[in-house]
Write a structure and sequence with these properties.
This protein is of the alpha/beta class. It is built from 11 helices and 14 strands.
Amino acid sequence: MEEIISQAVDQAIPELRDLSLKIHKNPELCYKEHKAHEAICKYLNTIGVKVTPKAYGLDTSFLAEYGEGDRVVDFCAEYDALPVIGHGCGHNLIAVCSIASFIGVVAAMNQMNVSGKVRLLGTPAEEGGAGKLKLVDAGALKNTTASLMSHPTPRFPHISPSSVGIAFGTSLAAAGFTAEFTGKSAHAAQMPSAGVNALDAASLAYQAVGLLRQHIKPTERINIILPEGGTAQNIIPDKARIRFSVRSETLKEMEILRTRVENCMKGAALATGCEVEIAPAMVPYAEIRPNESLCTEFAQYMSSKGMEYHCDLQRKGIAPFSTDMGNVSYEVPSFHGHYFIPTPPGTAMHTEAFRDAAKAEEAHSIAMSVGKGMAVVGLKILVDDGFAAEVKNHFEDDRKLR
């Protein structure tokens, strides 16, 4: 079955390379990925796969599926881009990697008469739009046995140079908010005493957050900008706005940190005589809860092909980013691996350098290898009763730790 998967993916490599480049050349923001959606659906139709476009009420989601049975394996495909820098997160590679996995499993199921169902789920708007949460709410994962995807990244400096990626790793939970400060305008020179300065409140809140950073965990993050702070220098600003995000190791810890940051906003409003209204600006993303069985099986397969993946079940790595795949991992057993692609020294995610690396042929080749590995793991869920039970048991055990 592994050989069937490998041959099927190898045969599809040229077309998937073209598809990856097409997505990369036409970056689209969350919920506007119409070209990517159309290109992927068109490709799947040409290879004889049943596709439902605009699935689950989302214009840029799709669903491709094959087979029948109680066990259902999903591969998640992302394809949205970032403002200004395009595919600086490599979602073009994520898309074709998951498509390769789907193609591989379909080939094995077809030739070996395997029961069960494999699905390719188009998941738009990962970059802050919480597309997977909307799919969860729409029932997309209702009967899913396991969900898999993998993400390209620059090399992590703390991981052994012999490792080509991370199998057992998590991310940070995250949420975004706005704080709207309201004061009272006045002529800044003639009668400043008549005004209540909303920009003062925003500035004080910014400083309070800066002081708070000394007393948070090393893995936690607070990011803050001031997109609004007045309209003219000779008028006391009666409006100011802060946008901030908080990240912690778990959803529970993130809620605690959020409260501490909100208190900075409220305290600044009280000190300056302003009013403040705090509102969500981003649906909370949960941390990834990696399934031990899925991660171990993937790492073992990749190792058998000469590619070592970091997989320490006693000490899972924490990547300082956030993804709505974390919310999927709260719902069903999940795999979200990281694979390193060649980048210039010092390259970070969400940069032009990483965007350029994500279109390189070597990066595509690595993504295809990862696609094969995920396909092998997905197929094992369908054909191996003991492994499927183990995956479920690890998921239920993890639920008790949340």
